[in-house]
Please model this.
Amino acid sequence: MKNRVLAAAALAGSVLLTAACGGGASTPKPTGQGALAGVCPATVVIQTDWFATPERAAAYQLVGPNGTVDAKKGAYSGPLGDTGVNVEVRLGGPFLGGQPVAAQMYQDNSITLGLVPTDEQVRARAKFPLTGVFASLQKNPQIVMWDPATYTVNSWKDVAATGASILYSEGKIYMDYLIANGDVKKEQADASYDGTPSRFVAEHGRVMQQGYVSNEPYRWEHDVKGWLKPTGHLLVADAGYEAYPHAWSVRSGELDKLRPCLQKLVPMLQQAQIDYATNPEPTNQALLKIAQGIPDGPPITAGGNADSVKVQLKEKIIANGPGNTLGNFDLDRVTRSIAQVTPLLRAKGREVPDNLTAKDLVTNEFIDPAKGLKQQG
Model:
């Protein structure tokens, strides 16, 4: 009962979501049901791009709330239901030793799936070709945030007009897009962001910075000592940047070998995200356990986790793709994203193959079109 109450609180103000089943099908089976033994690797290894957070919760949902935390390795693992295989979710960030996920996947062949944005797939394609098979997030949660008492911002053009420095992490392609689009002046971009609120607080909000709409605004208002007040923000996606933030990807050369596994596994990935959106509390508790067992990551709180799910649903970060299906790719959108980032990457000396297409980067082959989120009421 407690879990249901907490889950309901997390979803307050958003739509009530249930699994959508087409053609009169019955309710989808629980996450992980079905035989994967002998079809998938004995341990399905999922390499994430950061610490264990609600934006990456579908991976942890696969393991469930009773997984094992390995602080040294930076991993959370356990059986995938009654499928006969295990799942090991590896944290990113410092556990990658500075490597992008795509490069790590080619250094470590034990990784089955990696969470790689589609813009990063374009950047990696020449050396580390990947194929996305599942999009856990429909919209990029990345934002630029500011102090509304210092700056009045109603649109991206207002951001450029402020002239404020914008702290961001080096190598983020979206910043090159914002500059090229006139939404940020080149001299505003400051690639010294260290992942903490320290400079934002020390400068009393005179700088802007990157963040996730599903993380920083709540944390700054409720948990950041020296601030504890609202912030303003704009979504990078609302500037027209179309990359998918998490394409769960395999090495392209292994697609054929993994096909029998992916045919059964990918619908389970879809169901994991549906289950998390519908009842997030068990996995949110697992995220707390992981944060307690693996120190030095971003602060993870029960209130922040609950708010994150609410915001992800409200902002359609977690949402259906084409055809009311969760997890599929809009190939036209991927095509537009390739066109957006290719000239930006080439301008920085990056090799991008000629005539790159959406089908080079992603596939909907393994997606179950009946699995999605549906509004009720």
The CA atoms of residues 26 and 152 lie 50 Å apart. The chain is about 35% helix and 15% strand. Confidence is low (pLDDT under 50) at residues 1-30. The first strand starts at residue 17 and ends at 19.
